[in-house]
Amino acid sequence: MAGIAFFAPDQGVYDMAKEVLAENPGNISLLKKIEGGPDAVAEARKAVSDGITIIIARGRQARLIEQYTNITVIHIVLTAQEMGLLVMDLKEKIGKEHPRIGLVGDPNMFCDTTCFDQLFGVQLFRYYLDEGYNFQKVLTDGIFEELDGIIGGADVLAYTKNFRNDNIASGYFYSTMESVRNAIIQAEALYQAIQKEKSNSVRFAAAMEGAVNGMLQVDKKGAITVMNHAMELMLRQSITDVKGKAVTAVLGDMDKKEVEKVLGSTKETYCSIACIGRERVMIMMTPIVIADQADGAIISCNKIKRPVSADETKRMKDQYLCGYIAKHSFSDIEYLSQGMPKTVQLAKCYAISDSPVIIWGNPGDEREEMAQAIHNHSLRKSGAYISVNIAGLSDEAQIDLLFGKRFLNPDSREQTKGALLAAENGTLCINALDKMGTRTQYFLNNIIQNNTLLYNDLDRIQNVNTRLIGTTTKDMRKLLEMGLFRDDLYYAFCSMALRIPPLRERKQDIERLVTIYISHYVEKYSTFHVLTDNAKRILIEYSWKGNLVQLKHFCERCVLTSGRRIMTDRYVMELLEELYGREEQVPGLEAGNRNMEEADRELLYLTLQKYNGNKTLTAKALDISTTTLWRRLKKYGID
Questions:
Q1: Count of CB atoms situated within 10 Å of the CB of 336
Q2: Which of 57, 306, 311, 350 could bridge 62 with an S-S bond, Cβ 3.0-4.6 Å?
Q3: 373 in Cβ contact with 328 (< 8 Å)
Q4: How far, CA to CA in Å, does 281 sit from each of 234, 260, 314, 335?
Q5: In this structure, are residues 180 and 105 in contact, taking their beta carbons and an 8 Å threshold?
Q6: Would you state the pLDDT for residue 106?
Q7: pLDDT in tens, 73-120
Q8: Per CATH, the architecture of 315-499 is what?
Q9: Secondary structure letter of residue 211 according to DSSP
Q10: Partners of 280 in beta bridges
Q11: What is the CATH number of domain 507-636?
């Protein structure tokens, strides 16, 4: 037996339900009259064991079935017409113009009675029963003193009759054909929806099992709920091993923040690359959208490359032992540099490809960190990462460095591989790409186009499987226009270009980095120093042409040479001027600088007068060196 059960609380409801079902039985397979709450629970449990999926019930019976079973319950709700008839009948019994009537029962039984006072000329008091259905607690002597009549179920009315000797007017809940029919229609609609959902679930499960790629389903919290057989083979774990676990714990290469973005949005998707065992897979995560809200997600894992061979595994291990590893990831960059989310997102897209990438920026920025993050986010993350700088090298020296000494001179006894082959199956980062010589450009372009290394003796050809990343601080288009860079090599690199915004364009990053660096060096040197708000403002507005490197080392110098715990704006400005010169000052601070210089000059003059021109005592009083004092006296023209 399967379908819907109808539990009637009295003979009247039973007869009406029987009449409705005679017209169209639908999916109701059980109709039963049940008196009393405990009997309803026992019958509900029996119905569930027989395959019933929905129960129609009323009042206390419905509440108890919901409380003690897991089955879906449809409440028989008294309609406005039925409730209106009850109120009018009781009002007539009471015989008053505006009687006070109490409505006692389960809140799920009643329609909206907000306007009944105005519609029927009564004062309606509502006494809703909780899960314990303790109507004795509600029906106190005080309530009876206030009310002219009570509407309730059989138990409520029996208790009222025994409690009051004067037989307070009462009205019994009775349903008409309307509420019975409404409950049946609602149950049928829900049953059809459940059956459709079951059908969809079966089809979805069949589609998942039939898929050759691994598939997972997660709930809105990111916990695994379903996994197909292909995914079990990839993970070498069954669904029972991983069900309920966070998907980021099972697939460790997935970015936790990106997963949270997908689960919190209806439009976000997430794409990444991961290694599962010896398989390299493309992970695609798409939200399941229900009623304009993400209600979980589907994750597919597609194999995109052959398994790593034993020889390749050994070669990768040797490369790792040689120190050819990338230490930085996108999470490192996102922690320190939150002011360039579009750049990071673009870099993640580039990581999926094997094509060359060029990273353009400024001295001291995150170009190297970005290159390492691209490598660690790519299919090549298990391979070597080698970074070389070709600035200052001759054309021949660049060729030797990149391709090996035997590339141009086959008779050379030098057996060392060039950086290109040393990074086989990994990534080679070439810094100062703008300094590359014309011959080196020619050979590198041939390798990019053909994926082979043709030695000078023409007898040896070496296949090359190395991803190239170039970095520069120059505008490569200008070099192209000047004929200093090959056009074909330019287009090979610049189709995937990244620009690292300078630190001066990321004020929020400067503020965070100052806090991080100062805290780091205070802890490192076991000191205690803090910046004033004005000092921090000066650092935030400074140009920082050397970007992170300049800022980091400046913060270290601040901590090391500060003679006081409080690092003031004057101390910071003097140190900036001492290290980098006045030409580095930010125009927006010029007015403030002038005011500070005037105050500084006056302080020097007054202190010098106080000590009768004694430079040593003056320097000591100002807590500066005599050298600094002489320089400032000269600066302000004080004799």
A1: 16
A2: 57
A3: yes
A4: 10, 21, 21, 26
A5: no
A6: 84
A7: 999 998 888 889 999 999 998 888 889 998 888 888 888 888 899 889
A8: 3-Layer(aba) Sandwich (3.40)
A9: -
A10: 275, 305
A11: 1.10.8.60
321: confidence class by pLDDT, cuts 50, 70, 90:
very low
Beta strands in 265-355 (DSSP E): 270-276, 279-290, 293-305
Q: How far is CA 92 from CA 62, 84, 98, 347, in A?
A: 31, 12, 11, 79
Query: For residue 249, what are the CA distances in angstroms to 284, 301, 332, 616?
Result: 17, 15, 19, 65
DSSP, collapsed to helix, strand or coil, labels residue 285 as strand
* Residue-wise pLDDT tens digits, 577-619: 999 987 444 444 444 455 556 667 777 877 888 788 888 888 8
State yes or no: pLDDT of 515 exceeds 90. yes
pLDDT of residue 131: 63
pTM of the complete model beyond 0.85: no
**Average pLDDT of the segment spanning 11-38:** 89
Among 3.90.45.10, 3.40.50.10660, 3.40.640.10, 3.30.379.10, name the CATH number for the domain at 80-174: 3.40.50.10660
Torsion of Cα atoms, 180 then 182 then 186 then 191, to 10°: 40
Coil, helix or strand at residue 261: helix
SS3 per residue for 160-178: HHHHCCCCCEEEECCCCHH
**Continuous segment of H or E residues that includes residue 234:** helix 229-235
- CATH class in words for 218-305: alpha beta
For 107-159, what is each residue's pLDDT tens digit?
Answer: 888 888 888 998 899 999 888 877 666 667 667 655 666 788 889 887 788 88
